[in-house]
Amino acid sequence: MKLFTRGDVDGFCAIALDNVVQLLLVPALCLGVAGFPPALVFGKILPGIAVSYLAGNLFYAWQAHRLAKKEGRSDVCALPFGLNTPTFIAFVFLVMLPAKQIAISQGSADPDTVAWQAGLVACIGSGLIEFFGAFIAERVRRMTPRAALLARG
Fold first, then answer.
1. SS (H, E, C) 10-22
2. What is the DSSP string of 40-79?
C-alpha cells in the first residue's frame, strides 16, 4: 500500500488553505467582533484549535489507513478535519457576543471568559447533537423520499 497517491497534494493544499483562512478568521472575529483580549485568543482559543487540528487529522488519517489495509484498497481518503466555518461564525454572533453582553449588563468581573465558556458549552452541545443524531441518521435517510434528498435550494 502506497503512503501517498495521486491527488494527495491537491487534497493537502485544499485543506491547508481552508485551515489558514479559518485561522485568520478566528482572531479577526474574536478580537474585532467579540472584543476578546489577545491573551484569550492567542493563549487559549488558537492553541486549542491547533490541538484539535492535529488530533482530528491524525485520527481520521489513522481510520483511513485502517480501512485501506482492511479492504486492500489504495483509493481510501481521510476525511479532512477543521473548523466548521459557518458554525463558528454563528457561535461568535449568536452565542459568545450575546453572552458577553449579558455578562457585562449583569456586572460580571470577566465577561470575556463568560462568553468564551458559553462558546465551549455551545460546542459541546453541538457535538452531542451530532453524536446522538448519528444513531438515527440512517433511519431518517431511509424514510426521506429520494427526491427530497436530491433537492437543492
1. HHHHHHHHHHHHH
2. HIIIIIHHHHHHHHHHHHHHHHHHHHHHHHHHT-S---PP
C-alpha cell at 37: 483580549
4, three cell numbers:
501517498
Q: Mean pLDDT for each consecutive 10-residue tract of the chain (153 residues)?
A: 74 88 95 96 95 93 92 85 91 97 97 97 96 95 90 75
Number of other residues whose CB lies within 10 A of the CB of residue 151: 8
Domain ranges in the chain are: 1-83, 84-153
**Distance separating alpha carbons of residues 123 and 119, to the nearest angstrom:** 6
